Amino acid sequence: MSDALPRVGSALIVRDEANRILLGKRNKDPQRGSWVLPGGKIHAFESIADAAERELEEETGLKVEIQGQFRVYEIINPPAEHRIVIYSWAKSVGGVISAADDISEVRFVPMEELGELPLTPLVRRALMDAGLIAGAPPPYEKAPVDARPSLFPMLDGERPRQSHRSRVQVRRKQHRPVDVSRQSSLVFESALSE
């Protein structure tokens, strides 16, 4: 597979019957030892939902049922990192939980313990946005100063207008690390066929 950027991934917020959240401890750099929501790279011609199901089973041994998309996040950290991560909701429907090589430990964590774990910044933000850990989620009404234009369709179907001057200003800022979040509305193929 190519190492072309941006890298697009699919990850899951999985709840069990006790309303605990599935987390895995990273076993590779960057951020080795931090807790993450399981997921991984979307392969060519693979749907978002299929990628999430495949990655979760590979990393944790569990089978899941996708319940819908949550949010899309973008990480831009030139020159080596540009990721787009699509988080979805899911519930566990089978399998035997066990950690694979990408994660050293996997477990369902009670919600009251989520904020105490060393989470990656993106996972902490996603869990805050989902209302699963304490903290004020960031406002989405006003874009951050360093925000890049959204790569995904807007909810009303209109493309945001941007002058040439503002595009140039954004390009000048690309040398600084930026953690940008965008919300988008995507539809899974399986949801369309049902």
Helix content: 10-25%
* Total beta strand runs: 8
Main-sheet strand order equals 4-1-6-5-8
End-to-end separation in angstroms reads 32 Å
User: What is the rounded Rg?
Assistant: 17 Å
Count of the domains: 1
Helices and strands, in order, run as EEEEHEEEHHHEH
Low-confidence stretches: 138-194
What is the CATH superfamily label? Nucleoside Triphosphate Pyrophosphohydrolase
Helix count from the secondary structure assignment? 5
Share of residues in strands: 25-35%
- Which CATH class is shown? Alpha Beta
The CATH topology: Nucleoside Triphosphate Pyrophosphohydrolase
CATH architecture, by name, is Alpha-Beta Complex
User: Largest sheet, if any?
Assistant: 5 strands, mixed
Mean pLDDT: 77
Task: Please tell me about this protein's structure.
This protein has 194 residues and is α+β, with helices and mostly antiparallel strands. Helices cover 21% and strands 32% of the residues. It has five helices and eight strands, in the order ββββαβββαααβα. The two termini are 32 Å apart.
Q: How are the elements arranged and paired?
A:
Layout (H helix, E strand, L loop, with lengths): L6 E9 L5 E6 L8 E2 L2 E3 L6 H13 L1 E16 L3 E15 L7 E7 L1 H4 L6 H9 L34 H9 L5 E5 L6 H5 L1
Parallel strand pairs: 1-6
Antiparallel strand pairs: 1-4, 2-3, 2-7, 5-6, 5-8
Which labels suit this protein?
32% strand, alpha+beta, 3-stranded antiparallel sheet, 194 residues, single chain, disordered C terminus, 5-stranded mixed sheet, Nucleoside Triphosphate Pyrophosphohydrolase
